[in-house]
Design goal:
The complex is a heterotrimer of chains A (about 260), B (about 170) and C (about 400). Chain B is mainly α. Chain B is built from six helices and no strands. Chain C is mainly alpha-helical and about 400 residues long. Chain C contains 14 helices and no strands. Chain C starts with 16 loop residues before the first helix and ends with a helix. Classes of the chains: A alpha+beta (about 260), B mainly alpha (about 170), C mainly alpha (about 400). At the A-B interface, helix 1, helix 3, strand 2, strand 4 and helix 6 of A face helix 1 and helix 2 of B.
């Protein structure tokens, strides 16, 4: 085969190589996929689950006594190792001595608060958990489509798809995510999706002795959280981040980030 | 055309130019990759969004450890539930102290470990702790209050006040 | 003054030394490739002695780049998910296709650059080597001037495409960090540019070192014009990279937003040694002075060589420190805005110092293997001709060929 070394001939050959190399297989396989695709699976339950529910969470900081029962119950309900420093939910203690001197701690997530002989000006506990943001940065940065937000308002992680790159953990401004020490995939609070989908309450809400944590369906305007959001003075965490968090804190002090 | 050795005896059907050969190799590699990809992506991926649709069901059907709480307990333990409901502990759920109870609700005959009303259990809420305002929950200095006795010696957890000794302090 | 509080889930740093390595290695790849392209695309003749070495180095380090990532993943067996279902909103999803595309470019460019050599090496070797080089030709054995002209044209095209690809290969890594609003040390639009510039810096420095070492091992005289040129490029890119890095900090300090207190605390209390001492001091200040001295004609040639090569080494250390300061430093700032986490480097443990050193060494092992298989030397070995005229299309093997044909 004789080659003519002309620019045109060369470019034509190069173009043919590119077409053959990349475009042709893509085209053929896309066509094959269309022929072979099934009808998307639809289950009535899933759609009613999503059609009827819009979950919301609220926390009344005035009521939390820092007992840590929620932290323990969450670990027991969701299979998070009790003895490891990873938490789906935790409780922080704030001790304010002056404008410049605010001491915060959360030893073992709030399971192990120590008593000190001090007299702060202000003292309170703040429970924290995943805010199930409406514009979640964790979903945005997942490289493999392993995390997503359901239409009823919960961000979940596909444990079979997650590659454990930890990018979502880096992107969460609230520190809500962690790498599960046993499963080696990302994990976080799911508002006990397996419970709320069956009409139960999340475990932490269930055991809170002072009812500081509140959970309900925002579709019902008379439900607890819907009423709180409508009537009480509430604050969200880091609203300037644009994440649109979905946990409303009643009477949250300015020092809490 | 210049070859260092004689013209090769058998002529391959694939044209011999370097460009074509490289392009052909690329074609083969990309095709193989796309075939593997086709097989590897789960069918339910992309069903509802950029994620595996089947995963929702996996989360919904996870096993629970905590029962529904008071409504479940009332079936067999109505007296205790009612008593607690009228006491200072009325806001609480049984599982706050008794822990996850679903296995018990499903199989009530199975013996449960007894919950001891001691400083470790009751102290979680009731020990004096900096951060814990005194008007939220009555607190005592652990170690000083009972001289080492378990809380349940004087306080019935289902009706903590008045104490078994009588006074409503 | 805030207490040292970090969120419970932040106690352990999530991205460790392996993730420090990945941007380092891809940076070396991008930088080495750019040096190769400065010759093949922009015709900088002084860089010809290292033009092939640069591409082979880029290839060796490209092979080594995914290893720290695979070692870091919680589920490495699922790594291909990133190519099967890349999530387009995620910068990290770019890894699969950008890396593969770039690998294809590099392999193709290597093929067209070395094809003539493959044909000759196949002829003059025997047994396994012969079969191996025959395979590498992909059966295209025509070495007429027209065919070689095609090869050279393809090299130039691929080198041209390769430049923006190299930018992407490292730029996207910068974007991975720069787009995380939750982390004040990472979040800046300048991050991709900073990463890319410091990548070029590290690549040029690497090439200086490899060139010097290879000349020393092969007992060849180093081409001083080439070394001088690398010196100049290193200096310019170093100034550019440092300017942007300083601009970022200056801007943050000037705007004095909430996160400034934390960042300032990071640089002055948490990582002052690696930031001010190693990254800025050893890695910038010293080379900034030593490099121009290395071009000063008043000094003897061996002194100038030492100055340039040691600057290269200092820059390599400094850029590694920069990656450390970005990756680890960023994670030390707690999202609670109220304290700093601690980084504990173990020696043997997961993501420890020893495995990290091994992962740095592996690309050099690849390089050793590659320079055996694809000798990139252009200076007078017996089998090669002694002239290579880049403007003409004459074969490098012309003299030998005249003997055999």
């Amino acid at each position: 085969m004789k080659f003519t070394v002309s620019r045109r001939g060369f470019l034509v050959s190069a173009a043919k190589a590119v077409t053959a190399g990349i475009l042709a297989p893509v085209a053929t396989l896309t066509a094959a996929q269309n022929i072979l695709a099934d009808e998307p699976l639809q289950t009535k339950e899933k759609f009613s689950l999503w059609a009827n529910n819009d979950w919301g969470f609220a926390i009344d900081v005035n009521k939390c006594i820092g007992c840590g029962l929620c932290v323990k119950a969450c670990k027991q309900e969701n299979g998070v190792p009790l003895d490891q420093e990873v938490y789906r939910t935790w409780v922080e203690r704030y001790l304010k001595f002056s404008e410049e001197d605010v001491r915060i701690d959360s030893p073992r997530g709030g399971l192990d608060f120590k008593q000190y002989d001090v007299r702060p000006e202000k003292q309170f506990f703040v429970p924290k958990l995943c805010n199930q943001c409406k514009n979640p940065p964790c979903v945005q940065v997942c490289p493999v489509g392993a995390t997503y937000r359901t239409p009823d308002g919960v961000v979940l992680v596909d444990r079979k798809r997650c590659i454990g790159c930890r990018y979502c953990i880096q992107s969460c401004p609230y520190g809500a995510r962690f790498l599960h020490p046993v499963l080696k995939v990302a994990d976080k609070c799911t508002w006990c999706y397996h419970r709320i989908s069956k009409g139960l309450q999340p475990a932490c809400v269930e055991v809170c002795p002072k009812k500081a944590r509140k959970f309900s369906n925002l579709r019902d305007p008379n439900s607890e959280v819907a009423t709180i959001r409508r009537k009480d003075r509430i604050r969200l965490l880091k609203p300037d981040m644009g994440t649109k968090p979905n946990v409303a804190y009643i009477d949250l002090d300015e020092v809490v980030k | 055309m210049v070859y260092l050795q004689e013209e090769p005896e058998k002529r391959s059907r694939i044209p011999q130019s370097a460009l074509f050969r490289a392009g052909f190799l690329l074609f083969v590699v990309v095709t193989i990759f796309l075939l593997i990809r086709q097989a590897a992506v789960p069918k339910s991926f992309g069903q509802y969004g950029y994620y595996r649709g089947d995963n929702v069901e996996e989360w919904v059907s996870l096993p629970q450890n905590f029962a529904q709480g008071n409504p479940d307990c009332t079936t067999c333990h109505q007296p205790e539930v009612l008593q607690t409901g009228q006491s200072a502990h009325s806001q609480m759920d049984c599982q706050s102290c008794h822990g996850p109870l679903l296995t018990h609700v499903k199989n009530p005959k199975q013996p449960l470990p007894k919950v001891i009303g001691n400083a470790e259990l009751c102290g979680a809420c009731h020990r004096e702790l900096i951060g814990r305002a005194r008007d939220l929950v009555p607190t005592v200095k652990l170690g000083q209050h009972s001289g080492g006795l378990d809380c349940s010696r004087c306080h019935d957890p289902h009706k903590p006040l008045p104490t078994k000794g009588g006074s409503n302090l | 003054m805030m207490s040292g509080y970090v969120f419970p889930n932040e106690i352990e740093v999530n991205w460790g030394l392996f993730i420090v390595l990945y941007p380092y290695i891809t940076g070396l790849v991008a930088g080495a490739f750019i040096v190769s392209s400065l010759y093949h695309v922009f015709g900088k003749a002084e860089l010809k002695p290292v033009s092939r070495l640069a591409l082979v180095s880029a290839l060796a380090f490209l092979f080594g780049a995914p290893l720290p990532l695979l070692a870091h993943l919680g589920q490495p067996l699922r790594a291909l998910n990133i190519m099967f279902t890349p999530h387009m909103t995620s910068a990290m999803a770019g890894f699969g296709y950008i890396y593969s595309f770039y690998m294809i470019i590099c392999l193709l460019e290597t093929y067209f650059m070395f094809r003539e050599d493959f044909v000759h090496w196949a002829t003059y070797s025997s047994g396994l080597s012969k079969r191996f080089y025959n395979l590498l030709t992909l059966g295209a054995k025509d070495i007429s001037p027209e065919a070689l002209h095609t090869d050279h044209r393809m090299v130039k095209i691929l080198a041209t495409i390769g430049i923006p690809s190299a930018f992407f290969l490292h730029g996207y890594v910068g974007f991975i960090f720069g787009s995380i609003k939750a982390n004040p040390w990472w979040s800046t639009p300048l991050m991709p540019v900073i990463f890319l510039l410091s990548a070029t810096v590290s690549g040029v420095a690497l090439l200086i070192l490899i060139y010097k070492v290879s000349c020393w091992v092969r007992r060849k005289k180093i081409d001083l014009a080439c070394l001088n040129s690398l010196n100049s490029y290193l200096w310019i890119f170093l100034i550019l990279a440092t300017t942007l890095e300083l601009l970022e900090v200056l801007h943050m300090g000037y705007e004095s937003k909430e996160e400034w207190d934390l960042v300032r605390g990071l640089l002055t209390q948490a990582i002052p040694i690696t930031y001010m001492g190693v990254q800025m001091g050893l890695g910038v200040l010293f080379p900034l002075i030593l490099l121009p001295l290395g071009r000063w004609k008043r000094l003897g040639s061996s002194v100038r060589q030492t100055l340039t090569v040691s600057s290269g080494l200092l820059v390599l250390i400094g850029v590694l420190a920069m990656r450390f300061n970005v990756v680890i430093g960023g994670q030390l700032i707690s999202k609670s805005m109220a304290g700093y986490a601690q980084f504990h480097a173990t020696f043997l443990g997961p993501e420890g110092i020893l495995p990290t050193m091994a992962l740095v060494a592996i690309p050099f092992v690849f390089l050793l293997i590659l320079v055996r298989i694809l000798p990139p030397w252009l200076d007078g070995k017996p089998e090669t001709a002694n002239q290579d005229n880049i403007t003409g299309i004459h074969s490098r093997w012309q003299l030998k060929q005249a003997g055999t044909k």
